[in-house]
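Let's sit down with a protein and look at its sequence and fold side by side. Which protein we use is up to you, so please pick one and set it down. Label the sequence line and the structure token line clearly, so we can match residues to local backbone shapes. Go ahead whenever you are ready, and we will take it from there:

***
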Amino acid sequence: QLVESGGGLVQPGGSLTLSCVTSGFTLDYYTIAWFHQAPGQRREGVAFITSSDGGSYYTDAVKGRFTISKDIAQNTIYLQMNRLKAEDTGVYYCAADPFRASFGARDYDVWGRGTQVTVSS
């Protein structure tokens, strides 16, 4: 199970930290990804952190602004979002998979319900 939190309303240029609490599986063995779904758009991966070496990967749209990290002791994945833009608005989901590591939504079998992020002045 994955449960996201931390969303909210923030002004452009502001910051938010999203959390994804995991349960029911060993976090060490799973790649965890964050996805963004803007209103009326399909769900797109923005960052993921691998199980093998803990390497982190970002799409160009968020590189340098977002940071994904994990706390194994807390079974939690974080997404630190800085310098937020209006186009970052949408629902953010975390997803997990034990075998694949990519930005593709089809590669992930376990999903949370999402948390809403709104960037607006």
Summary: The chain has no helices and eleven strands. The chain has a mean pLDDT of 95.
